[in-house]
Amino acid sequence: MDGGAWRKALDQLAHGSFRARPWFEPGPWGCHWISEKIPCLASDVPNYARSLELISPENCPLFTNDALPLVWSFDRLMAAPLEACICAPGSRFGREFPIRFDYLDTMRGGNLSLQCHPRPEYIRRNFGETFTQDETYYIMDCEPGALVYLGFNEGVDPAEFHAALRESYDKAVPFDAEKYAKTLVAEKHGLYLIPNGTIHCSGTGNMVLEISATPYIFTFKMYDWMRLDLDGKPRPLNIDRAMENLYFERQGSRVEEELVSRPRVLREEAGGRLVHLPTHPEHFYDIHRFELSSAMEEQTDGSVHVMCLVEGERVLLHTPDGRTRRFHYAETFCVSAAAGSYLLETENGEAVKVVKAFLKPTA
Q1: How is residue 83 annotated by DSSP?
Q2: Is 111's pLDDT higher than 90?
Q3: Can you give the pTM of this predicted structure?
């Protein structure tokens, strides 16, 4: 590719919209929702457990001339001076793209592992990351009675919990997860908040859009339901690291009060409405949902907007550079901060829902 064309293309992405190439993989909890809903995937795998839709260390954008694709590192898009166009001028994240979207498919599959993520000072001290993985579960789809494990039950004692985990690991006996972890019945289009140090797990029967911060892979698994991975080996656990990071005060009624997002309508207009799904104070990003009947315009207000079509077959994105792009159900796409504004439009009169995540002004 000619250098001038390369730089021009990067500049167009940095001032408009882009989508990264997703990456799909099987796993011990996975099933077939992803393969049934997303066309053209390979069929020579046992299942699809997850899709990495937008995780900057993992996903790559690509250019094509309709014959040959050119795949390149996402990091190049975040190199100076483009990073301020993509995320936000003066953002504390610099060249690190801060927001990630991925799918976790447990529909007719198995539970995820019982896990937590490190506290900010812990991930800095032990792994050199500048921010931690504060995440959320957005329920794209679910079966009746599907559960989300979130926080602790009232009165859980840390020492007793730790001893039960160690006994399960040392003696290879089942751990009574529901005795300790609080369970909530999953609601379609519900948002569950998982700030760092929170015990959590998606139960079987959920299709989760995980909206999260983007450090690298530091997840502390405490219990994995006595199962083996696809290679027939036990998956590694990190019980002691988890115990150094868990917040045991997130238990009982505080879970519903603090970790279940309560939607409220921000504005209504002829083309639809914008709904706020508030995140936790620990989260540096916030989440809105467009519920479109025809078209709505939005301002970027100095932040990248990461979006996903969570209901409906397709949606059109119009950006000020004169480009129109069509995105389909479950596809993730971004509008750069420097775009300034954009218009989302339905096709064929179909009502659709689009979730967007963006940086809070203080980030």
Answers
A1: H
A2: yes
A3: 0.95
Cα separation, 45 vs 261, whole angstroms: 35
Handedness of CA 168, 169, 171, 174 (dihedral sign): positive
Q: Given 228, 259, 290, which residue is the final one in a domain?
A: 259
Give me the domain span that covers residue 289.
264-359
One-letter-per-residue 3-state SS of 111-124: CCCEEECCCHHHHH
Q: Which of 203-212, 223-232, 312-321 has the lowest mean pLDDT?
A: 223-232
Q: Let me know whether 221 and 324 are in one domain.
A: no
> Which residues are CB-neighbours of 349 under 8 A, at least 6 positions away?
none
CATH number of the domain residue 154 falls in: 2.60.120.10
H or E segment to which residue 69 belongs: strand 69-71
In this predicted model, which residue has the larger pLDDT, 159 or 94? 159
- Residue of higher predicted confidence among 320 and 215: 320
Query: Cβ-count burial of 252 within 10 angstroms (0-12 exposed, 13-18 middle, 19+ buried)?
Result: middle
Q: Please, which pLDDT band fits residue 144 given cuts at 50, 70 and 90?
A: very high
Residue 343 main-chain phi, psi, to 5 deg: -125, 130
| Cα 97 from Cα 211, distance rounded (Å) | 13
| Same-domain check for residues 107 and 89 | yes
Q: What is the pLDDT of residue 19?
A: 93
| Degrees to nearest 5, angle at CA 250 with 141 and 286 | 50
Cβ neighbours for 49, distance < 8 A, ≥ 6 positions apart: 25, 26, 27, 28, 29, 30, 31, 104, 105, 109
The residue-averaged pLDDT of 125-137 equals 95
Percent of the chain with pLDDT over 70: 100
Our count of domains for the chain comes to 2
C-alpha count within 13 angstroms, C-beta hemisphere, residue 184: 27
Q: Are residues 235 and 343 in the same domain?
A: no
CB 45 within 8 A of CB 26: yes
Q: Mark whether 249 and 272 lie in a shared domain.
A: no
